[in-house]
Amino acid sequence: MRKPYRFETRTIHAGQPADPSTGAVMTPIYQTSTYRQKRVGEHLGYEYSRTGNPTRHALEECLSSLEEGHAGLAFASGMAAIDAILHLLRPGDHVLAVDDLYGGTYRIFEQTYAPMGVSFSYAPASEPAAFLKHLRPETRLIWLETPTNPLLNLCDIRGIAEGARKMNSSAWICVDNTFATPYLQQPLNLGADIVLHSTTKYLGGHSDVVGGAIVVRDAALAERLAFLQNAVGAVPGPMDCFLVLRGIKTLPVRMERHASNAEAVARFLETHEAIEQVFYPGLPSHPQHDLARRQMRNGGGMVSFTAKGGTHAARRIAEGTHLFALAESLGGVESLIEVPAAMTHASTLDSPLAVSPALIRLSVGLENTQDLVEDLRQALDALA
Q: Which of 47, 125, 225, 357 has its CA 20 to 30 A from that of 164?
């Protein structure tokens, strides 16, 4: 789809022309495993659905357009997408990662790839120059999340990319853009080489599908990752692709509502006596608020906070809400609450990346703002 169309238009139309055989406006679900060939090797662009499927192709084209990359690739989960990127590495390679990241990412780093000879180190990425001091001659991949999961720190993507290039680093820069989505920030335009998404989250947006995606700006890298996608085979089914495409159509309006609700919730939490600290990049109190204003369209839909009273208080709050469902994951229309140390980040326990057991993470949904605030208020007041 031609680039002059603006983002909101591309969420609805990119990669999704009307079906030529029927005129159907919605992309058909091509629920097939194989495709008839006219002669040996002569087909209409598809041979076998692990290699390619028209519904998946539509999703990949849409994602590539939204991130303004060369190519997009869809996977069966966010972890499958991460695994494909890590397959680019060889024993002896080094990965420099931000020191606050999703527990599943840390787990696959340390428990799957480290035993195979890939080394990993972790450092704060708020200051590009300090972060890049940890580069090594064998560094092949720089791994960023921004905002990070679960402390909502920001990485200066442009600063890190420009600094790495000045140091003649040949490392790929990968940004997990799951929390922000391409609506809030586009890492490829800020100097990243690879963008990663768990499409399970905001892109799907309705907590009814599991998926992942990669978008890259380099043709050779896209070709290599496409080979891995096909060879390893962790691809999404056509129904999953359809659901993510359907979710993407409302991404801009959802992200605006997520952010307005999240900011209201964060402002309320800052005023409550039971709260020790609030983490939300849309608040002026966030230490990287100025970077958030430069790099992101708004503060996003995730809020984290620590409760006075430690582990006991955190668990009572998480178990005491009614609208906020106690559940892992994020990015759906409904609001969720969790204690990362015991849930999504349990794999970091006893590691340098361990999360405070007093930390609570919110995925703020699309419900009425005041209802959400009142739900948190009653859970917090119950601590007294």
A: 225
How far is residue 157's CA from residue 173's CA, in Å, rounded to a whole number? 9
CATH 3.90.1150.10-classified regions of the chain: 251-381
Active site residues: 50, 102, 176, 201
Integer CA distances (angstroms), 167 to 30, 51, 293, in order: 47, 38, 27
Start-to-end C-alpha separation, the chain: 57
Q: Identify the CA nearest to 319 among candidates 242, 227, 383.
A: 383
Domain boundaries 251-381, corresponding CATH code: 3.90.1150.10
pLDDT score of 335: 98
Architecture of domain 7-248: 3-Layer(aba) Sandwich (3.40)
Backbone angles phi, psi at 39, to 5 degrees: -140, 170
How far apart CA 264 and CA 234 sit, in angstroms, is 39
pLDDT single digits (tens) 182-205: 999 999 999 999 999 999 999 999
Reported as a single tens digit per residue, the pLDDT across 94-136 is 999 999 999 999 999 999 999 999 999 999 999 999 999 999 9
